[in-house]
Amino acid sequence: MSPLQVCLLFSSALFCIGLVGALSRSNAILVLLGIELMLNAANLNFIAFWRYSPAPAVGTGVLFVIFSIAVAAAEAAVGLALVIAIYRHQKNIRLQEANRLKG
Amino acid sequence: MNAALAFIAVLTLASAAVAMALRNLIHSALLLIASWFGLAAFYLWAGAEFVAFAQVLVYVGAISMVVLFAVLLTRRSRQDLAVEPASLGRALSALLVGATVAVVLARAIFATPLAVAPTATPTISVRQLGAQLMGPHAAALLVVGVILTVALLGAVVLAATDRADSKENAP
Amino acid sequence: MSAIAATEPFLERAPQLLRDAATGFLPEPWRWLVNSLIAIGVILAVFGTLFAFLTLAERKILGRVQNRPGPNRTPLPFIKIKFFGLAQPFADGVKSLTKEDIVPRDADQVLHFLAPVVLLAFSIITFAVIPFGRHLVPVELDAGVLYFFAAGAATELAVFMAGWASHNKYSLLAAMRALAQLISYELPLLLAWVPVVLVAGSLSTTEIVTAQAGWKFGFLPHWYVFTPWGFAGFVIFIVAALAESNRSPFDLPEAESELIAGHLTEYSGFKYALFFMAEYFGMIALSGMAITLFLGGWRAPLPFLEWIPSYAWFGAKLIVLLLGFIWIRATFPRLRMDQLTRFAWKFLVPLALINLGNAAFWSLTSHWTGALQLIRWAVSLVLIVGPFVLMGRKLSAGVAPRVYRYAPS
């Protein structure tokens, strides 16, 4: 097993942990955190491929991760604002109860 | 070198898995922060110094704060923090989906001929990164700036109370 | 560490010579390891001692400001001479070590234990990138400044952990306050040093110090604090640093009079001492960073003073800044929570952003000479003083000096 394969397996495992978390939990914040984990796993792949690329001086993988981190920050801010808005309407943040279009 | 990688991977995966399984929200969030640290360590191992520090600064410094703040704002008593586990059927189906995806990904990884020889850890200086960002990727940088501004405004609009004055005027 | 030319004065080379004399006989990989360990040990010893006497200095100075003597009863051991209470830090240390360590029954045991450890660990690792002298940089990093602030961002997390784990409503309030304060002041703190990186063209601490070499007209050092944008950045940095290290007037998370010491309420004995130590270490590290970024690092202020070794200058600047922190604590009353956040979001952040534009103008006009140089200074001054006055007026609208109607003025 080459080191790149180890990195890719690492990232797949992280992705699946995030996926299972996002699917199985009912708390909105935990679902959001699961999605963050999946995003992180994708970042990990970019860095792994950059690390073993023939021309690392170009740095495309690193640049992509920088953009990805910026987008993740935006996603977290909006997502948590949504969670707080949901909480204000229904006094809890269980997702299965957030099924009304009119608050 | 590979021992370090294995160590980082095991720690990161363990803390992420335990975080997703725990009942206590605060413990979950703190363990996730630990796994974000693990990812930063991986980036350091891979030679992407700038990304590692940016990861710690953004995830541990900013996102974790917002998450913890949201956890504290959306609870009424201390017992609220212990989230009841999802129904057994849901947990099992989620595990099934996760396992399927894992198997598919692993098979894909082993089936792909990744012609990679072990190389020395590459380095990329902040100066090179900056030149890349300002040169070929300037448009993307502008778009990210717009996204962040829109997200900031959107978050403020979403989280702000609907009638700001009604609470103050209430007796 | 870089190779050192033998032409430099002896005092400048003394730390390296000492170290090489101690570890020179070791083979290469071991030598590196031992050298690193020595660096860690020296940092811990020097700043541990500084911390001990800083607590004493703080208590003495606060006492002087409040017209009381401060600690003066602790005699030196064995000789029983009361010498300005100089043995007070050691008495405090012995006291905190021998006290009972109380953990509340309902506390989150693991987090309650981890909080002070995490806090101290992250406060200490920030020292790694600060250039203490011409050749005294523990770790040279290409993105050193970023490392410093990434490590510093994790400390407020520990304050949250402490507040939440204590299972105490005052501590929980302190935790919420700590989070809000960190989110608010992280931004001005980061924006304050971005202009420096812009002008110096590097994120490495050594190169930022190198960029501040030289003198203008033979006496004005090229420190960034002596430029309009640099001065504004320095002030914003210090204000945000006060907030980040939970110092008065931004010590809301541990406000003694309203939150009975906030996140520290349920801590006793040595864990309490660890919190205290981490607070001072954080303060020292942020001062060191301010010196590196704005005050020319280890450089001498005047050309004819260059014979004094660089680390002495760094130490002198550090002590001046720390005394300034103590002075601020003695002078200003604590802010209210809404004042704190409003000050950050409506004043410091816009001002820091304008300052960034100002620095961009400064670096674009770096080739101007003669009369144009005057225009450059004037425009830069207007660019920062104008917004400061306008926004300051808006911030303090409706606030006037208190009129004492019954007391003689």
How would you describe this protein?
The complex is a heterotrimer of chains A (103), B (171) and C (409). With 103 residues, chain A is an all-alpha fold. Chain A contains three helices and no strands. The radius of gyration of chain A is 17 Å and the shape is elongated. In chain A, 59% of the residues are buried. Chain B has 171 residues and is an all-alpha fold. Chain B folds into three domains: 1-82, NADH-ubiquinone/plastoquinone oxidoreductase chain 6, subunit NuoJ (Four Helix Bundle (Hemerythrin (Met), subunit A), Up-down Bundle); 86-113; 124-161. In chain B, helix 1 (2-21) runs antiparallel to helix 2 and helix 2 (25-46) runs antiparallel to helix 3. The radius of gyration of chain B is 21 Å and the shape is globular. The model of chain C has no long low-confidence stretch (mean pLDDT 82). The chains are: A mainly alpha (103), B mainly alpha (171), C mainly alpha (409). Chains A and B meet through helix 1, helix 2 and helix 3 of A and helix 1, helix 2, helix 3, helix 4 and helix 5 of B.
Short characterization:
With 103 residues, chain A is mainly alpha-helical.
Helix-strand blueprint:
The complex is a heterotrimer of chains A (103), B (171) and C (409).
Chain A: H1 3-24, H2 28-51, H3 60-90
Chain B: H1 2-21, H2 25-46, H3 49-73, H4 88-111, H5 126-134, H6 138-159, H7 164-169
Chain C: H1 10-23, H2 28-65, H3 88-98, H4 109-125, H5 144-153, H6 155-165, H7 169-200, H8 205-211, E1 215-216, E2 220-221, H9 228-244, H10 256-259, H11 269-294, H12 310-331, H13 337-364, H14 371-395
Antiparallel strand pairs in C: 1-2
